Amino acid sequence: MAKRSQILELAVLGLLHEHPMHGYELRRQLNVQLGAFRALSYGTLYPCLKDLVARGWIAEDDTQTASVAASRRAKISYKLTAEGKERFQELMTTSGSAAWEDDNFGVHFAFFGRTSAGVRIRILEGRRSRLEERMEAVRGSLARSRDRLDSYTLELQRHGLESTEREVRWLNELIRTEHEQAFPVPGQQQPQQGSPEPRPS
């Protein structure tokens, strides 16, 4: 799922899995809930919706559209089809390297509630491994070029390193919790399930 159009497909199917939405609401939810789409335009969203309709994964929701037909401009509402639900589940079983890239990871994580524990753990561990590689690269770069960098560039690199370190600690905690819930130790009290803490900035 390396292409942006494919991760947008996953995001749209995931949001429509909850309930039907019209294009305006979909764009708002994509902008607010999923950081990867903060600059998403209608010129990108509507071709995606048209393609998903053509594939039979979503359909116009006549009941929702009819309810706003009396307004000056009726909005087309979309709903997930049975085939669309199957496609969404297929995409949510994907745990290859593309699933933990910067933009893609947030979208996958947003729908973790519909993902198996094994897939969640593979994606979280893959993300952690990728960030650990990034940290080592930044540390090596800092060690080699510290004397040649001005103070502001140096602080920017330090800030990026600290942010990555915080995310790795967050991932470590999530992975630990996932393992405890997926592979409980007999006789040990399990932590209560709940929403994970917000992802650090």
From TrEMBL:
Instruction: Tell me which residues make up the Transcription regulator PadR N-terminal domain.
Output: 12-90
| UniProt feature coiled coil, ranges | 121-148
Identify the keywords attached in UniProt to this record, alphabetized.
Answer: Coiled coil
InterPro entries from the entry?
A: Metal_resp_DNA-bind_regulator, Tscrpt_reg_PadR_N, WH-like_DNA-bd_sf, WH_DNA-bd_sf
Cited SUPFAM superfamilies: Winged helix' DNA-binding domain (SSF46785)
One Pfam family hit: PadR
- Does the keyword field hold NAD? no
Region entry Disordered: which residue ranges? Answer: 179-201
Q: Where is the composition biased (Low complexity)?
A: 182-201
Query: What is the protein's name according to its record?
Result: PadR family transcriptional regulator
Q: Which organism is it from?
A: Catenulispora subtropica
Taxonomy of origin reads:
Bacteria, Bacillati, Actinomycetota, Actinomycetes, Catenulisporales
